[in-house]
Amino acid sequence: MVATQPKPTRTVSRPSPAPARPHHRPPGRWRQPLLAAAFLAPALSILAVWIVYPTVRTVLRSLFGRDPQDFVGLDNYHTLFTTDTLTMAIRNNALWVAVVPLTVTAIGTVLAVLTERIRWAAAFRTAVFMPMAVSMFAAGVIWHVMAEKDPQRGTLNAVVGVVHDAVNPTGVLATGRPSTPALTGDPGSGIALRDPVRPGQSAPLGLTGIPTREVPPGSVPAAIPAAGPDQITGTVFRDFSPGGGQPGVVEPGEAGIPGATVELRDTGGRVLATTHTSADGGFRFSGLDPGDYRVAIGRDTFAAPFEGVDWLGPKLITPTIMIAYTWMWAGFAMVLIAAGLAAIPRDVLDAARIDGASEWQVFRRVTVPLLAPVLTVVLVTMVVNVLKVFDIVMAVAGESTQDDANVIALAMWRTSFTGANNYGLGSAISVVLFLLVLPALALNIRRFRREGRR
Amino acid sequence: MTALRRLPVQLLLGGIALLWLVPTFGLLLTSLLPPSVIESGGWWTVLAKPRLMTLDNYRAMFADRQLVDALVTTCVVAVGNTALLVLISALAGYAFAWLPFRGRDGLFLVVVGLLVVPLQIALIPIFSLYNATGLFDTAAGLILFHVAFGLPFGIFLLRNALLEIPVEIIESARLDGASEARVFTQLILPLSRPAIAALAIFQFLFTWNDLIVALTLGRATQPLTVAIFAQLRQYGANIDIIAPAAFISLAIPLAVFLALQGAFTRGLLAGSTKG
Description:
The structure holds 2 protein chains of 2 kinds. Chain A has 15 helices and 9 strands. Chain A has helices at residues 6-12, 21-24, 31-61, 75-82, 84-115, 121-129, 136-146, 155-167, 317-343, 346-354, 359-387, 391-396, 402-405, 408-417, 423-453, and strands at 177-178, 183-186, 190-193, 202-208, 232-238, 261-265, 271-276, 282-285, 294-297. Chain A has a 5-stranded antiparallel beta sheet with strand order 2-3-9-6-7, with no helix packed on it. In chain A, strands 1-4-5-8 form a 4-stranded mixed beta sheet, with no helix packed on it. The longest helix of chain A has 32 residues, at 84-115. Chain A starts with 5 loop residues before the first helix and ends with a helix. Chain B is globular and about 70 Å long. Chain B is mainly alpha-helical. Chain B contains 16 helices and no strands. The relative contact order of chain B is 0.13. Chain B has 2 domains: 2-54, no CATH class; 63-273, MetI-like (MetI-like fold). The chains are: A alpha+beta, B mainly alpha.
């Protein structure tokens, strides 16, 4: 590991392990501790007032109710695990811990390994690491903008929309129903005429269930084009006129549906030709051999336009914030893991390759075990970070979705400060948060002791 | 041959780098678009019509007293607490590294242990304390809070860095009769400059970006993050104010980061893999 490299120089620079201290202790036994106290005083007093005292105070306060005189024992902790918005916060945080550290570490590992193979690794790492410098909050604002629902404005939905439209082009109508029993089918499969049609005939294809505002722009009153001997014509129209009218008949005032797809099928249902209707809803198939045909309104007439995935809505808000968070922290994991990788002796890897191991085997059996300490550091750090996640949730989730996006730190803040001012319950929440990060403390101290002994 | 074989990796990483840059780039372009355009389309409209770009949003932002005040507050808090933190951590780090006293390692362990106390746990008592002492809603209050929660890491980082200084240098200076104060200012501080730089960058970025502390312990003393948050909450969609403010708020740490990337990465490595 890079960080341990300076160690050897230090040992080298101390050639004689002779006890240097006794010789050079300044005169006067009392001076040394006093001096140390002077150097330590500012730090220790600040730590005492701003961290130690508040921690003790908060633990005690968590045993009292909203009223600081009212001792309630562990009631606040009971409330914490039985109130819906708070259990939601705990569940969400559990999801965060389960998903995000592993995802970030996995992405970091893959990127660290891959960047070893390119020349512009430094530039790449800067690009991926950059979001770390951006605040959680600014990142939240960025992703709030990215995730807007309107595909005209939100980047995510613009991309999803392009894919959506390629797979599933937008039709001219959102929906529609056959206006007479002569037509059968539904928007999902297309609406077809029940009886066969022969060249020289015309087919009125009436639809109902279309609100006025959904009649496609450019529509003019419906009309059926005259059919030549080798032609089948017809019109797709909105079979509704004020006062009712007669179903299945084109009447004055009924609107044509321009741009609808009309399919000419054989009696077996195979599509022979397609065409699109004109402004009055009319269509024409020409050059047909005598015989029976079927006419249908194609189903792509009915595809609804893409309205955007509701990234910021109650269902997707937590995954959206997780994506934003991963975007921020993947670079952190990558940098640490890349440093770990650089410290792995090349000859170990080469030896494995010479022994006939595939690249995957080398990665799985040699690289990952050697990286284990770094991977642990990244995972532990990420778990702690994720337990404390706050700013980014505040920024991405609007007030209305904060219940759905709730996490422990946010719940603590909302309970204590946004007018709710329940310090007892708020204290209990922060104590729980503290207890959750405590295992990381144990790990940190153990690691520190191990280093110290070396 | 190898170049060709690497092409898929190159393309993949190129795509990923692009993916990682798009959000920030998108925010920049959004901040350069007139409000009318932002209403009807995303930032990519500008790619087709670069002439739409304007600095109007930034002009409007710098004409807004509240936002300018917020920017000043952010600078004062971030710079002030960083300077104070570096000084206090260096003093304590020196004591832990080079001034022997009984119980030193135990005390150091306690300080390092404070590293994982979540700052949320201090919010309520400090809120009350500040209300009682008049520190509420002052830059000094914010600075002291940030210093406190930066100290465990700062002391840890600097103590380890100071230990790397060869013992002979310090011993010979002491032999020559230099006082501890002189050793500290003329030897220790200059020799540990890389670690100090790393700590300073870290703390600067962290506190520049703070939201929760300022939101809790201030009201009129608003840093930029809180000001943007208020905008976000008040109107929801006035992106022509939010986008430039958010971009300014990230441009400065970004510049710091890009200029001092090496030191930042070193600090990160020291902080996470040592100890």
